[in-house]
Write a structure and sequence with these properties.
Elements: E1 2-4, E2 9-16, E3 19-26, E4 37-41, E5 44-49, H1 52-55, E6 58-65, E7 68-76, E8 87-91, E9 94-99, E10 110-116, E11 121-127, E12 141-144, E13 148-153, H2 156-159, E14 162-167, E15 178-180, E16 194-198, E17 201-206, E18 219-226, E19 232-240, E20 251-254, E21 258-263, H3 266-269, E22 272-279, E23 282-290
Antiparallel strand pairs: 1-2, 2-3, 4-5, 5-6, 6-7, 8-9, 9-10, 10-11, 12-13, 13-14, 14-15, 16-17, 17-18, 18-19, 20-21, 21-22, 22-23
Length: 294
């Protein structure tokens, strides 16, 4: 699923054997930014429209029904200007939505969790930061694998960033979670511009990280949730770009084993992709791909 927020549309492709079919979805009103955030898993597609209703925001949830995707439900934000739907993710039967600009004037942020049923969505809990601070932007980026929920807060610690980790099976559900993936204090904008959680692996990246080699060097931080009790967070690696300006970590993809990290402005704008394999708390570099031309 690919969002086109400038046109308030999302293009959903479905695979049938060796063929791909496209289903174009539209909704809301012009300027809603439908498609700003998109997540898809197991026939469910969640699409954020953070500018809907004067910036209150909406999330459209579609489910595959035969050869097409139909609207399962439309969720609306609660407060003008909070931009509900700026970030969305779907994992197993869980939907997580971020509203990073709540409340207006402070923008400490909040998030919501919803349980996905075949015909309906039901609320699980609302999440807010433990210590709300101005421009924290809790919920600016979100991720879930169904069992774990990771909420980025890029404004934490003077903009170095961090994330909050919640475990779904903990009762009562933690309303803010434990702080993980703290940014590098020596470099600005170092964490939580994008977060990913899959199978105990916790990742945070920022292509805007200003490192020792200069502005927008880029950084990806990796931690692992394990130990005998399965609750010990262990730092694994902090990968950084090879030069200033290459925006290492601006794009990432992770399936629980193989991690792809993009550096779109590397090598004179030719771009570079690094492939790393993650397993049992260890990280192994597999291959590096380079663009053919600037």
């Amino acid at each position: 699923a690919v969002g086109v927020p400038s046109d308030d549309t999302v293009n959903v492709w479905r695979r049938e054997g060796e063929r791909w079919s496209e289903d174009v979805k539209t909704g809301g009103s012009a300027g809603d930014q439908l498609g700003f955030a998109v997540a898809a898993e197991d026939g469910v597609v969640a699409v954020g429209a953070p500018d809907a209703d004067a910036g209150t925001g909406e999330v459209w949830v579609f489910r595959r029904d035969g050869d097409e995707f139909v609207v399962l439900m439309t969720l609306s934000g609660l407060y003008v200007g909070e931009h509900f739907g700026r970030a969305v993710d779907v994992g197993a039967d869980v939907l997580v939505v971020g509203a990073p600009d709540y409340p207006a004037g402070t923008e400490s942020g909040r998030a919501e969790l919803w349980a996905i049923d075949w015909f309906w969505l039901s609320p699980i809990i609302g999440l807010e930061p433990t210590s709300p601070t101005t421009n924290l932007h809790f919920g600016d980026t979100v991720s879930t694998d169904g069992a774990l929920v990771l909420i980025g807060q890029p404004g934490a610690a003077s903009q170095t960033g961090s994330a909050r980790l919640c475990e779904r099976d903990v009762s009562p559900f933690p309303a803010s979670g434990n702080e993980v993936l703290r940014g590098d204090a020596s470099g600005a904008r170092s964490a939580a511009s994008a977060v990913v959680v899959r199978g105990g692996w916790l990742l945070a990246g920022s292509g805007l990280y200003d490192g020792p080699l200069g502005a927008n060097q880029g950084r990806v931080q990796i931690e692992y949730l394990g130990g005998a009790s399965g609750t010990v967070v262990t730092p694994v690696a902090a990968l950084v770009g090879g030069a200033a300006g290459e925006r290492f970590g601006a794009a990432r993809s992770f399936d629980g084993t193989l991690l792809a990290i993009g550096a779109p402005d590397a090598d004179g704008l030719r771009g570079r992709v690094e492939l790393h394999r993650l397993g049992t708390g260890a990280l192994t570099e597999e291959r590096t791909l380079t663009g053919a031309a600037a």
